[in-house]
Write a structure and sequence with these properties.
By secondary structure, the chain is α+β, with helices and mostly antiparallel strands. Helix content is about 15%, strand content about 40%. A 5-stranded mixed β-sheet has the order 3-2-1-5-8, with no helix packed on it. A 5-stranded mixed β-sheet has the order 4-10-9-6-7.
């Protein structure tokens, strides 16, 4: 009886946490060896690759092994859906500050959602042992106000 009192509320919470509330934007992420590809599925022809900036090319305000040449730009105070897959081996798209960790598996499309309530930069890395250079697959999300995001997406 005690186990039932523990199990039923837990199952209800798991179901509610997995529910996706009408996302404003869908971002598709594809893990490659040793970079990420991104597609803004709701907009035409907006896709790019994101590589780690080599140590030789870093500016003074960049983080070694964490900064990328193309950041993900997303609006704050918006529900974001992310679809993650991989092209070659298992990768794991992880942003600890957002509480997001989702595996990208070849042939599968995994989805999760998150909500950013403040502007700023959010850093993460591949956290799966997908090969010798998996630690060189950083992720950077730049959260900006919605009106700036609309201006950016129009350009």
């Amino acid at each position: 009886i005690i186990l039932l009192f523990i199990a039923f509320p837990s199952l209800r919470l798991l179901y509610l946490l997995d529910e996706i509330n009408e996302p404003l934007i869908t971002l598709k992420t594809i893990g490659h060896q040793w970079y990420w590809s991104y597609e803004y599925s709701d907009f035409m022809n907006i896709e790019f690759d994101s590589y780690m900036i080599p140590t030789n090319d870093l500016n003074l305000n960049n983080f070694r092994l964490l900064d990328v040449d193309n950041r993900i730009i997303l609006p704050m105070n918006s529900q974001i859906r992310i679809l993650v897959t991989a092209a070659d081996v298992i990768h794991s798209w992880t942003i600890p500050a957002l509480g997001v960790k989702i595996d990208g598996t070849p042939g599968r499309l995994n989805q999760t959602n998150f909500f950013m309530n403040r502007p700023g930069l959010f850093y993460g890395q591949c956290s799966e042992i997908c090969g010798a250079n998996h630690s060189f697959m950083p992720i950077v999300i730049e959260s900006i106000p919605t009106n700036f995001f609309i201006k950016w997406i129009m350009n």
